[in-house]
Each structure stands twice: as C-alpha cells, then as structure tokens.
Amino acid sequence: MDEVKIMEKKWWKESVVYQIYPRSFKDSNGDGIGDINGITEKLDYLKELGIDVIWLSPVYQSPNDDNGYDISDYQAIMEEFGTMEDFDRMLAEAHKRGIRIVMDLVVNHTSDEHAWFVESKKSRENPYRDYYIWREGKDGKEPNNWGSVFNGSAWVYDETTDMYYLHLFSKKQPDLNWDNPKVREEVFSMMNWWCEKGIDGFRMDVISMISKVEGLPDGKVQGGLYGDASPYVQNGPHVHEYLQEMNKEVLSKYDLLTVGECAGVTIEEAKKYASNKGTELGMVFQFEHMDLDQGEFSKWSDKKVKLTALKENLTKWQNELEGKAWNSLFWCNHDQPRVVSRFGNDSKEYREVSAKMLATCLHLMQGTPYVYQGEELGMTNVPFASVDEFKDIESINAYHEYVESGLISKEDMMRYLCYKSRDNARTPMQWNAQKNAGFTTGTPWIKVNPNYVEINAEEEVKRADSVFSYYKKLIALRHQEEVIVYGHYELLLPESEELYVYTRELNEEKLLVICNFTDKEVSYAVPDEFVGKEILISNYEEQEIKQELSLKPYEAIVVRR
Ligand code: TEU
Ligand code: CA
Asked: What would the mean pLDDT of 2-7 be, rounded to a whole number?
C-alpha cells in the first residue's frame, strides 16, 4: 500500500480520555455523594491506569434535576461537590501528574434556576427575555407538538406572561436562544474564564442542538405521543456559524481538547464540526452505533445488535473521517448501559474475557478512546428490582409515560429499563469489597451494584490478568505505537456475524486485530503476512499465530506483521 499520510499530529489525538461522573466516583465526606476531593484522592489510581485526560461531567452549581446537566451558575461549584478551592486543588494535582482536565460545557440549556431564566420569566420586556425561546400558544395549546427527550411536551406554559418556553430536555432545562448574540457573548466569556483558570478543554453537551429551524414546525409522531423535534433542532441552520464564532472567540486562543456531543450527526456534518482545518471542534461523539439496538419505542428495547451492523457502522466512520476529521471512540458514558452487559457477556464465565475483547476492538481503532469510570473494571449492568430504585429522570419519566399510556406493559418496561437505563452507568464506582464498595462511609445516593464483592478496583489493580491490567496495557500500547493512533483502518470479513477483524497500517507497520464476539470457538484463516508473527496483546494465554487459527470464546488477538 502507498505511504500513509500521517494526519496532523495533536496531543489530543494521542490521548486516552477517562470520564468521571463525579456524583458516583468517590465520596470524601460521608454524605453519600461523590465529590471533588474524592476525585483528587483517586488521581493516583488514574495515573496508574495511564490515562492522559479526565472529562469531568458537570460540577457546576445545579439544583440536580438532571444530575448537574441543569446548571444554575456556570462559574460556581455545586455545594455537594465542594468549593472552587477544592476544584483548583484538583486541577493542580492532576496537572502535577501530567493529567489534563476537560470540563463539561452544557450550554444548549440552563437550569430554570439560573439567574438569566429567573429574569427572563418576569416579563415579556425583561432584558433577559430573549435569552430563551418563548412562544405564544396555538389555539390554547402548546406552540407545536414537539416532545421532550425526557418525555412529555417540550413546552411549559408560564402564567405570568401567558407564553410557553421550550425545553428539549426536562422542564427545568429551558433551551437558550443561541440566535441572540448576547447569549453567545455570555457563553464565550464564561468559557474564556475557565480557560484562563487553566482547564484543558470542553466536552460540549448536545452542541448539535443549539440552532433551531425557524418557525419551529411540528414533528412526525411515531411510536409515542409527541412529535419528533430532532429534524428541526439537530445540526440546525446556524450551528456551524455559531461554533466557528466560538472557535474564533475562545477555542483558537488556547490549546484545548474539544469534543462535541452531536446527537443526530451524520458523516457530512461531522466533517464540518470536526474538520482537520480546526475551524470548529477537535472531534465529535456520534451515536449511530449506540442506536443500532433501538426498537419500536426508540431506546426502550432489549434488542441485541447484529455484529455485521455494528461493523458496518463503525467502519463507515473510520473510513469516511480519515484524513478529514477525527473520531472519538466509545462504548460507554454516563447515558449508556454497561458495554459488557450490552455487546459482551456479563456471566461469571465470560465477563472478564468479553470486557477485554470489547476494549481491544475499540482501542485499536483510529480516533481518541474514552473510558467511562468502572469500564476499566468490567463493571456490569445493575439488577434493579423495582422502578423506585431508579434515580434518573429519563428512566422515571419514560416508565410513567409508556406504562400509564398502555403503550408498554410494566414487565416489558422494567426489562427495558434494566437493560438500557442510564442508571446502569451511575451506580457507585466499585473501589473495594468493603461496605458500599468503598465509595462512601454514609448512605450512597443510588444503590450499589451488589457484585462489588467480586468486581472492584482494589482486587483488580493488583491482579496481572484483571480487566484493569488489560486496559492499562492497551493504553500503554497506544502511547508506544504510532500505528494505533494514526494508522489506516481496513475491515476484513464484513459478512461475519462472529468475528470483527480489521487491520491498521502506517508506512511499514501493520497490525491485525481479531475479535471473537461469540461464546463459541470460531476458526479464522490468518492472512499470510501475519502467520507466525508477534502478538502485541491478547486476552488469553498467547497462542502461536498459525494459518488456521481457532479462537476461543470472546478471544481477542492483535498481531504485528
Ligand atoms: O445527553 C444528550 C442526549 O441526547 C441524551 O438525551 C441521550 O440521548 C440520552 O441520555 C440517552 O438515553 C446529554 C447528556 O449527556 C445527558 O446526561 C443529559 O441528560 C442531556 O444532554 C441534557 O443535558
Ligand atoms: Ca460527598
């Protein structure tokens, strides 16, 4: 193959990011809620894992309707999480260890308790009125039929001014009006303030939704009670213009990692958001591979993904962005169930080996990998016993809407929640086998997964063949091997429902990645150039790379030519 042109090198392309959901990471003061000092305590653990960057889910002041994604003051720290001094200390301690910190930036909406909204509500003439999206009702009803992502209408009627405000998420998360230049100015100046403090980047919450189509037309009603707003709010008419402005006013002045959470992003759009030209963001989170197992009621389903579909999708992103934009790689985050329970096998027998296989499959691709807290331990979904055990607003609202309207039976909905609820990712980090998994000495805000007795950091850090040790190796490999970061990706065996096989190639270097996604032995005919060659990493006892390879259940092998 021709010399592969290396893409422009950047530190954030060569990094592995670790996402912390502070509420569930480590409680330092016994109130049952994770906090900033808890994170500082655990920086050495992250150093040991070898990650380069922390993405910190929101720590700003918030009434916690959506666990911090509803911000009432962007320049203050949530009391439950600590103080600004605690934050500064954490940042300094992280930097001391060579770990950078990326902040979550939630600016599609604020909390309804944000001072801007409190003002905005007061009167139609208030100077903050146009900071938000207010509309008159239509025939005594909502301005349009849009449903909120968290169920129910996307509009709330406000008596004071006899108008409705738009909230694509919860009622307590009114959408900001980005068409108002004052809003953009305020957001950019707040961002500059954080950059001056020395933070290392931003993960931008639903940034693809900041620009709405003029006229806010009704959406299609499918499988639910409300119209689908997404065609009118995702990748809207001015989103690129506003991000270019943000780039000019803020991002271009610092050396940052920026990643846009882009629900509904297509390849064409991603090439704009994350163009190599650096005019907008560094990379995007796309969600197509997370939506392949959706059913009639969108995410509420227990459908299993087909491996061919998964490969086709991830391969499309690998191929199409190469040389043009940069991918982010993830199986997990605070909104997704645990990957080992979803695409792997969380039984006693296969949990570890399948968690390692999934990690191999993702971490050997081109892009910046993200590890979500606990993923490096092979943490699993949670055996929730009743709807009262859920804390997540999305899960609770969906349960009520679907069950009470009779669209989904109670039993089915409970099964879907146990499989897909965001709370699967939000139970406390499992630090050790002691009470509450060592997360807190108090009463945890959400139940602890009872399997912490077997699955916990203390046990895994010291065991050479643990999931933790395996992640550590994968992360170190990426730091050593340029081909893992920048190499060209090529899919082999697209038709196989059992094996995910691909190569990475950079100049003289070539790697073969073989992953068995099944609990059966599967045979594979190794391409000649890899027969007898060196194994870089594998999740079983290393075997010789023969022409006819027999792969054990969930086996993963990376071979270097
Ligand atoms: O999520 C955006 C988003 O699109 C989610 O609604 C996602 O589709 C859903 O959670 C999957 O079940 C971001 C944050 O990551 C999420 O935690 C917030 O609740 C949401 O924005 C609102 O800020
Ligand atoms: Ca605490």
From this structure: 59
